[in-house]
Amino acid sequence: xxxxxxxxxxxxxxxxxxxxxxxxxxxxxxxxxxxxxxxxxxxxxxxxxxxxxxxxxxxxxxxxxxxxxxxxxxxxxxxxxxxxxxxxxxxxxxxxxxxxxxxxxxxxxxxxxxxxxxxxxxxxxxxxxxxxxxxxxxxxx
Length: 141
Prior knowledge:
By secondary structure, the protein is α+β, with helices and mostly antiparallel strands. α1 links the parallel β1 and β2 (about 30-35). The chain is globular. The chain contains five helices and four strands; from the N terminus they run βαβαααββα. Residues about 130-135 have low confidence and may be disordered. The protein has a four-stranded mixed β-sheet with strand order 2-1-3-4, with helices on one face. It has a single domain (about 5-115), classed as 3-Layer(aba) Sandwich (Glutaredoxin). The chain starts with a strand and ends in a 28-residue tail after the last helix.
């Protein structure tokens, strides 16, 4: 089983469900506060790998929903600058196992990477609150 460093937004129901799935699979989860982590462009960038820049963003972030930030209009440098200024823009969770870093929680991808005990149905990303619309799925790489 893996030791997973798990960067979450404290109090996020979606992150709680994701963490529970990792723990049920026998992984040790080391929870960190995504919003208070002292990020730099160099420490944050590896979590996004070869994902398109628009997929680095948390589409449920207030600034995106209000139309203040357009993820599709950002390049790498501007996206990182925005995220360092406003960490709520970062797609979560961010996870690290050893040297590998990932963003988001797509169950099939996480299962292939470190394993999950159960294969949950439906999307596990986005707000779990019933009054919030679901986040659109990320584009495919």
